[in-house]
Design goal:
The chain has 730 residues and is mostly helical. Among the domains are: 224 residues, no CATH class; 137 residues, no CATH class. The chain is 56% helix and 5% strand. The chain has 35 helices and 8 strands. Strands 6-5-7-8 form a 4-stranded mixed sheet. It has a two-stranded antiparallel sheet with strand order 1-2. α11 packs across α13 and α12 crosses α13. The radius of gyration is 34 Å and the shape is elongated. 39% of the residues are buried.
Length: 730
């Protein structure tokens, strides 16, 4: 009858008992020592045990490992050399993946982990020299131990079965690393050695507590020492020392054969509850944040890292980051003895969290993660950070770049505008908005709010004539909260709750006549795809506002023999926008011989033009990541209202009648300002700034904030966006 397979909790595994492992790890008592000496004195037993260990006797190897701390200094040195030699020659003795190889490895590693308790512990130079000669073999064996444990794809870290022998062997790995890599010069030497130390330390960080024989994270614990070593190596300049964390992650994921979901769970395991985790081991929490921050900095450096970053964000990294920021800010008000982090560490971690937030804004699918951050209260946390004074200059620069540049470039997406509006309203209600207004970088905050007011005006006007999904059925008026609403497949603008309502609307509700006209206008204005609608409206608005400057450049190009039909306009929705006119031949040549992005329209099909301006505008909008610019094409409709004229300005100082707004004019490819005029949106904003009065106490009728005032006025103002002629086509 075949023998029953062993469970992970059996008292023996591969020939070594749990009790023997305990004896080696914790040291042996008098009774155990007497049994192992077999009636001999220690001096008599040592030569025999050394000889047997050299032959590969498991009992003698176990004796050498167990008695290492009891040996005199000379014998301790020889014992360390024997254990290292055993690991060096293990591939010759037996195949490295066989059961015998594994338990011999375990015994030898357990013995080396007792160096710190031996008589030779004070003589670092001696044992360092021995370990260094065999370090690659030792490191390889320690890697094997971890690979065996971590390659098991458990569903979650909380359901891991406990294997005492593997757990004790893992703990021995911690001790060996903390014994060998314990000096700054060794740390620096191994930082870029490419010997696998970084991968091993990374696996130690990833290992769940459930697999630890001793999961203590006290100041003197070997595991904490290993985490400190990892933190130190990561802090060494990656360029000069060759630390490539992203390649380490890719290697570890490959070695452990983890699915990304499991990897995400392991990466976030130390971060779920910031307050509790920091109380347990602040260094482990800060190290975890630092590793994830470093990965985020790589921004799609390879596909594996990119997918892992996406999963970390989906797994809850942003709520964790903002909770941690709140925890750090709450610490400021505590008594010094009650604080978890020193002031220096706290300032450093606040800066790291700011960079994490900024990385999430600029990563792929940035508009979505930006709206999540705003919904989670990013602006309120920013106000608290600024008022605390807990910022380094470099972190302050990152913060204001995120507020004034990174987030506003997504104000061409309606859902981002909605999230920003709600966030700013809450900031206004709490009074924290005054902190940002009073900051010495307050002009950057005004850039944020002015662009938000402008795009809110456009959004509300567009919502009036072309509502976003999730409105009411145009036949029965049933809202999306009561039924599943879908769009008319032709015009993409009428909403229905059922096929019956759509049929009624088509036959007797008048939509049959409106649909074709609306589709004609949508095709003409380039708003055929739902996600392009507002983006293209913003681009047309910028074209219209800057038409005087565009007209000047067209006139200059005509002098050189170029006609509008020979030109191509690109509007990039940066902050401020960029408007570029180039000869069509130059645009076509720049694409020649290169694969184009699938989302890019043809650069050649722009022949038909009106007399005054090119017929098509290419709109470029940023969606995050390194190469996620989305290109769409706007067909300029033949409306005179698009070619806006009036008093022409170049900067704010010239606008004596418009000092209530802060206009950032568009620039060309050389960053030269393009002349502009004030349009209906500008005048609407000026009116709001001039006439809005905050409500007095108990006034429930007046607009609470200027944003409410703008929304209300824009929703009822038929003149805004009338240039699209949408009103007459409905």
């Amino acid at each position: 009858m075949p023998s029953k397979p062993k469970n992970r909790g059996d008292s023996k595994k591969d020939g070594i008992s749990v009790e023997a492992c305990h004896a080696i790890m914790k040291g042996i008592g008098e009774m155990e020592a007497e049994n192992m000496l077999e009636g001999m004195t220690l001096e008599e037993k040592i030569p025999l045990a050394f000889e047997g260990a050299r032959r590969g006797s498991i009992e003698d190897i176990c004796f050498v490992s167990s008695f290492l701390e009891k040996f005199p200094e000379t014998h301790a040195k020889e014992a360390i050399a024997i254990l290292c030699k055993i690991i060096d020659q293990l591939e010759i003795i037996t195949p490295p993946q066989s059961p015998s190889a594994r338990h011999i490895t375990n015994i030898a590693l357990l013995g080396l982990s007792r160096i710190h308790a031996s008589s030779i512990a004070h003589n670092r130079h001696t044992y360092h020299g021995i370990l260094e000669r065999s370090w690659l073999s030792i490191l390889c064996r320690m890697q094997s131990v971890y690979d065996e444990i971590l390659s098991s794809s458990f569903p979650s870290s909380s359901n891991l079965p406990f294997d005492p022998i593997s757990a004790m062997t893992i703990t021995s790995v911690h001790s060996i690393i903390s014994v060998f890599v314990d000096r700054e010069e060794v740390l620096k030497q191994n930082a870029g050695a490419g010997d696998g130390l970084l991968e091993l330390l990374f696996k130690i960080w990833l290992t769940p507590d459930a697999l630890m024989f001793d999961n203590s994270l006290g100041p003197l614990s070997p595991r904490r020492r290993c985490l400190y070593i990892l933190e130190t190596i990561l802090a060494i300049d990656s360029d000069s020392k060759g630390v490539r964390l992203e390649m380490t992650v890719k290697t570890v994921l490959h070695q452990t054969r983890w699915e990304l979901d499991l990897a995400t769970e392991r990466y976030l395991q130390h971060l779920r509850d910031p307050a509790k985790a920091c109380g347990k081991c602040p260094m482990l929490f800060s190290l975890s944040m630092a590793i994830i921050h470093r990965l985020g900095e790589e921004q799609c450096s390879n596909d594996t890292i990119c997918k892992l970053n996406d999963n970390l964000l989906k797994g809850g990294l942003l709520p964790i980051t903002l909770k941690f920021l709140s925890f750090l800010l709450e610490e400021i008000d505590k008594a010094p003895e009650s604080r978890v982090f020193s002031e220096e560490a706290r300032v450093r971690m606040i800066g790291l969290c700011i960079e994490l937030c900024r990385n999430s804004v600029t990563t792929r699918n940035g508009p979505y993660w930006t709206s999540c951050l705003l919904d989670l209260g990013l602006l309120s946390v920013v106000a608290r950070i600024l008022s605390s004074g807990q910022l380094l200059d470099i972190s302050r620069g990152y913060l204001w770049s995120m507020i004034a540049l990174d987030i506003p470039r997504y104000f061409c997406h309606r859902f981002v505008i909605s999230a920003a509006l709600n966030a700013v309203k809450k900031l206004t209600h709490s009074g924290d908005i005054k902190i940002l207004e009073a900051d010495d970088k307050g002009d950057l905050w005004r850039t944020f709010t002015n662009l938000l007011l402008e795009r809110t005006t456009l959004k509300m006007a567009l919502d009036r004539v072309n509502p976003e999904p999730g409105r009411k059925c145009i036949n029965c008026k049933k809202p999306d909260s009561e039924a599943r609403i879908f769009k008319c497949a032709s015009c993409m603008s009428a909403f229905y709750c059922s096929k019956e309502c759509q049929t009624i609307s088509w036959k007797s509700g008048g939509h049959r006549l409106k649909c074709s006209k609306l589709k004609e206008v949508i095709d003409m204005t380039g708003t055929g795809r739902p996600f392009d609608i507002f983006i293209n409206i913003v681009a047309l608005s910028e074209f219209r506002r800057h038409y005087p400057g565009i007209e000047r450049r067209l006139a200059e190009m005509k002098k050189s023999g170029l006609q509008p039909k020979d030109l191509f306009i690109t509007i990039t929705l940066t902050v401020p926008p960029t408007i570029v006119l180039r000869p069509l031949q130059e645009e076509t040549a720049s694409a020649g011989g290169h694969l184009q992005d699938r989302s890019r329209p043809s650069r050649v099909n722009v022949a038909r033009t009106y007399d005054c301006c090119p017929n098509k505008i290419r709109v470029e909008s940023y969606w995050g990541g390194r190469s996620s610019t989305v290109h769409t094409t706007v067909y300029l409709p033949p409306y005179d209202q698009l070619y806006l004229r009036g008093n022409v300005y170049m900067n704010n100082s010239q606008m004596k009648d418009a000092l209530l707004i802060c206009r950032r004019p568009a620039v060309d490819e050389e960053e030269k300002i393009i002349a502009f005029v004030l349009d209906e949106v500008d005048k609407h904003m000026m009116d709001a700034r001039e006439h809005f009065v905050p409500p007095i106490l108990d006034d429930n009728k007046s607009s609470v904030t200027i944003y409410d005032y703008i929304e209300k006025k824009a929703a009822s103002n038929q003149n805004i966006l009338s240039w699209l002629k949408l009103g007459s086509k409905f």
